[in-house]
## 1
Amino acid sequence: MRILITGGAGFIGSHIVDHYVAAGDEVIVIDSLITGCKDNIADHLRSGNIKFIERDVCRFDTIADEIDVIMHLASPASPFDYLRYPIETMRTLSLGTYNMLELSRQKSAKFLLASTSEVYGDPEEHPQKEDYWGNVNPVGPRAVYDEGKRFAEALTAAYSREHNVETTIVRIFNTYGERMKEEDGRVIPTFINQALKNEPLTIFGDGKQTRSFCYISDMVDALAGSVKIKYGHPINVGNPKEYTMLEVADIVKKLCLSTSGLEFLPLPENDPKRRKPDISKAQEVLGWTPKVDLNAGLIRTIEWFRRKDD
């Protein structure tokens, strides 16, 4: 199989690259490196296992290679990144998605959109099912990502209807693991980095807001499985086990043997209060359920952060 992965030098993207290289597939990576990092795919670059194109998907139109599947993961994904690059984020999720859908149409390739739980905004339904339309502030600071992904989903659905492009939309819930950046801004790498340095763990609001955390190997399995099926509707992918931020802080501190205290900061604007996926659709159409619990995934992730800093 010939597979093109946009954002393939990023956190999730690079693990997807590992998966397909290990399977013996031909892999092409497109990444502008605005938030991705070549170190994430350095072994493949040295061995020549992949073809790497450093380019913005907003300025990419075609490629000579035949393509069977396009996995569109390109976009800043952490709040720190998409708030730092708001226009670039919206361009990637609009024009970049259009360019990749056009390429899928040209190549008769399957198109997988890596969407996000952020399309649900600050949800009034709990847990979130795929038929919930969300509660998003279209002009808030997070809208560049939330509404960008919602537009990308709408465009993907339109290409499916109008051009018969085979599409799959996967709504990714909080994912963590090796290769996350220390300065990512998301809770897991932030807590680990602070705990390993015995610095105060920053808690936004009262810490009672919840998230659910999916380990990277489980996410890779779900995304790879999504490529194999014919299902044109959105699919939630995440771990449905729900934790408060205070609970996560306590677990990270214990696993890091940290003496860190807690520092409470104001809750960011439009920050969701609760986030938990209903994954019954993924279980039904993918036969997928996450296998790695939070403790086991955190132990692996913490060990990676320790080795990286040695």
## 2
Amino acid sequence: MRHFGHIPAAVRAGLFHREPAAFDADSPAPVLAAALGATLYSPATRPRLAADIRKQAGRGVVSMVLCLEDSIADGDVEAAEENLVRRLTELAGQGGETPLLFVRVREPEQIPDLVHRLGDAASLLSGFVLPKFTEERGVPFLEALTAAEAASGRRLFAMPVLESPELLHLETRTETLAGIARTVDKYRDRVLALRLGVTDFCSAYGLRRAPDMTAYDVQIVASVIGDVVNTLGRSDGTGFTITGPVWEYFKVQERMFKPQLRRSPFLEGEAEELRTALIEHDLDGLLREIGLDRANGLQGKTCIHPSHVLPVHALSVVSHEEYGDARDILRPERGGGGVLRSAYTNKMNEVKPHRAWAERTLLRAEVFGVAGEDVGFVELLAAGLAGLQE
């Protein structure tokens, strides 16, 4: 699979200076972590789950979570498990390409049980999402994952979700973060990425952000995101990929504040119509939050609606300017450090402080590609939307 693979090759060639590279479930973990992009969640109760997965793969989705936890009622768990096993077995029998598939479980014992019940169809799984992760709760999950991996002979990754009240509450946050850090470090080879459960954070205080506000406008949420990145997202080799929080809006609602999407990138051709459509679907707030995710050290995003996928991916493409700066910083002759002017003559590139950024940028360029010199988010999003209609 590859990002923007649903776009015709000729169109893709005109958009990218360097096209996104192909990858699959057996690619190295750092590549997969960077490639997750917009991870689309789906309740495991959906009767057409196999067809849904196939459809989303054709629409550019490269990672999905099939949920047995909060998205379904407590009384539906057994039926959801049966449906999941039945539909994944059906999907495995069809062959063809599927996204990276993860199952969000409730309890550790579900992991080996589901892998056993799936049999050969377990080859479709890339791993499991572990809810409400803390040191005490997380160890049994990771032990169950390790056992299931050994029994199946299949590489399985964990994606812990950081969403527990102990992580949010100030008096327990430091200790909880330290415990999480110890746990994921012990199982480092199994942990693909850490996910943030911002909806649960808000729930602990009876909050819900409006569609014209981002997670970073809710100060109590912003503070815990900062502490999670501070502890678990360092670029010194100890850190992990941390993904952006879910954007839970996808339908027009009455606005209190003016749209957040500037007109200037949308002034040519039919771009103004695209801007209007984004605003009408409450996606201007999503775009702003994606930018703030990146600025705060987060990569990719949890998504609960297919309309969110393309904006996340379009904003994940490395710009021609970013790519040029990153390559200049990492040239072998720059190993001794120093300062150089960007080829775009608009900024300073300081080799040692910017090295980690440059390395992360080139990894993102590998999986999401590098836009052409005069290609921006608007062109990428418009081409992606056109590809869905063909």
